[in-house]
Design brief:
By secondary structure, this protein is mainly alpha-helical. It has helices at about 1-15, 25-30, 35-40, 45-65, 75-90, 95-105, 105-130, 140-155, 160-165, 170-185, 185-190, 200-210. The protein has a single domain (about 50-210), classed as Tetracycline Repressor, domain 2 (Orthogonal Bundle). The chain is built from 12 helices and no strands.
Amino acid sequence: MKERILQEAALRFFREGFARVSMDDLAGELGISKKTIYQHFASKEELLEQVLQQLVQGIDRDVCAILDEEQADFIQKLTRLFALLAGRLSQLSQAFTRDLQKYTPEIWKKVDERRSQMLQKNFRRLVAEGVKQQAFRRGFDPQFFLLSYLTLIRRFINPEMLSELSISPRQAFENIVNILMEGVLSEEARMHYKPRKFALDAFSKDVLQQL
């Protein structure tokens, strides 16, 4: 039951925003009483925090699976990784990111800290593979690139900036990736890397069809 509540809350929150979805709405959609929801979650805010925690943990798990693929080279992993992240970000509506800023900034702060730790760990590993396979231009500075990437992600893919720019999380992510990667990849690597539009992974397609 807890998992069912989390799944329904994720779909409704991501699509309609946090403020517009009530516990009564979720209970009605699930065919259960509101009391049942409160048996698993003390408040709507706690439910939101666990939804976001589950999202971040799922991304971390799937990213690690991509990085562990022994048969894939750096460009293949890079493409799959960015497609995965773009697909997950496609789940989040502008209404949802606006509500995070307005109603639950403290929850966003916790999620952002976990997100930053995950990105730093996984992207450092990916960049190390790229350096080993000579996929970057001569003079490439891995540490500076990592810092630039993480700074841009935190600066632009956050509720306040997304609200100000009136763009979706996915649009912001694609712009950051395209600008950064086209500037640092070697000529040979760029021939195999197609950055413009990322194809959605199967999970994200299923989610979007339900939205």
